Amino acid sequence: MKKKDQAFELRNLKRKIAGGIKTYTVASGKGGVGKTSLSVNLALALGSMGIRTIVLDGDLGLANVDVMFGMYPKYHLGHVISGEKKLSEILVSVQENVYILPGGTGLQDMADLDMTKQVKLIEEFSSLEEYGNVLLIDTGAGIHRSIVVFAIASDSLILVTSPDPTAIRDCYGLLKAVSLSAAASPEVYLIINMAKSNKEALEIASRLQYTARDFLDINLNMAGYILRDPHVEEAVKIGIPFIIADPNCEASKCVIQIARKIFNLENEEGIEEVPTGRGIKAFCMRLLRQLQLR
């Protein structure tokens, strides 16, 4: 067996022993900071590195993930919750190792199902383990109940803000809402998007880290930043994720660095490791529990 094949088998064995798919909620607290763009381009970066990634469009009011790929799926998560479709029937492959799971409405409907149907739904969701190592949940803007619920249920929270003062304030507001609702402090990563410079990004991150530590007792991990880049706007205009439109632009390089930082993709020997989490069943059970409490 080749060394590359052996490494692949060892990574998969490690994943089976450690757990299942790892879930990340991507949130911002404010619209217009590039959260969905980050989710999409981060997924594509992970896929190119061999990490099978599923993006769940968790913006239950206004789906944007599929639009960024130029796709308009006919079915969504609501059809799975109602029993009309299986999860495999609504999952859309957009690139090797990258899938979209259209969200749609019906989140609260999960909590209203009887126990038998909830168990059946969780079993249906467990099929995602066959498709991905990572589940990225792209949420809506603002500090809404559904966003906090997703954040608490996930293994990790990825917070995105721009240098705009209101965006920074709302980012902290969302973090505070999550900390007050969660039984334990979550694993949280911070990303500064549309930064003018490395210095600006680090200064903003430092202020947020200090505030989160002193007032919320949360360790806010600085995952990186994305520099303001004209290629991003150009990619949006033509409806193509910027990491595909121009993989060598500054924004693309920044996203790749963020992927390696958050997902710990390389050890000292340069062998990529598959992220592992508590699995999709555990995520669903936590999600249902939070929905029933609210």
Automatic annotation (TrEMBL):
> What superkingdom heads the lineage?
Bacteria
Q: Which positions does UniProt annotate for ATP binding? A: 30-37
Q: Name one GO cellular component term.
A: cytoplasmic side of plasma membrane
InterPro entries for the chain: FlhG (IPR033875), MinD_FleN (IPR025501), P-loop_NTPase (IPR027417), ParA/MinD_ATPase (IPR050625), YlxH/NBP35 (IPR033756)
Tell me which UniProt keywords the record has, alphabetically: ATP-binding, Nucleotide-binding
One Pfam family linked to the record: ParA
Q: Per its record, what are the GO molecular function terms? A: ATP binding; ATP hydrolysis activity
A GO BP term here is: negative regulation of cell division
Which PANTHER family does this chain map to? Answer: CELLULOSE BIOSYNTHESIS PROTEIN BCSQ-RELATED, SEPTUM SITE-DETERMINING PROTEIN MIND HOMOLOG, CHLOROPLASTIC-RELATED
The name of this protein is ATPase involved in chromosome partitioning
